[in-house]
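seq:
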Amino acid sequence: MTKLAAAATLACLLAAPALAQVPTAVPTTVPTAATFLTVVAEGEVTRIPDVAELSGGVVTTAPTAAAAMAANARAMTAVVAALRAAGVAERDIQTRGLGLQATYSYEERQQRLTGYQATNTVALRLRDIAKAGTLLDALVKAGANQISGPSFRLDKPEAALDEARVQAVTTARARATLYAQAAGMARKRIESTSEAGELGTPDPQPMPMRAAKAEMADAAPPVAPGEVNLGVRLTVRFELQ
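struct:
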């Protein structure tokens, strides 16, 4: 064996153990799946209203469409004039509905045209709610025979709603802590929050003005604004640990 061949053989023998080594596996930790809890909570506050909203209108009937619309226009002109005289600002009077429809009678299974019915309604916002009763009386005396309201609201409810939101989050956190402790866990953090909508006092139903007109013509009806409730409903998702 030549010296060159011997050197090559020795190099191969020295390199063999290194090539035969198996790489060592690096241990990895599989993260545990997070546990989440969804809580629905409400917050509600009470305030004294500072705005009254209502609607007033006139319904007229006549043998012809033109006559019905003309009679309605005259009546609504008187109603709007009464509103202005009562101190309602122009910006707080808005036409809400104007309509005309035919009326029919049914005799011996036959339909017969009897005339036309015209309607006109305005929505009102009263910023001095102490005058609500006087305004209702003025509407009726002016010829309004279709009135809905009043409903009472806050003109600027944002601050009250923010207070309700804070209350709702506080309730949600306390409820999440209760559930977590019952499950042997702890509340970690809020993962997401969504607001489902605002809660409030339901609107009043329309008043049957044709039946009540005679009773309201002599004196302004008493109107008590009371209080209004404002609230929000939140859906809050918590991470537990």
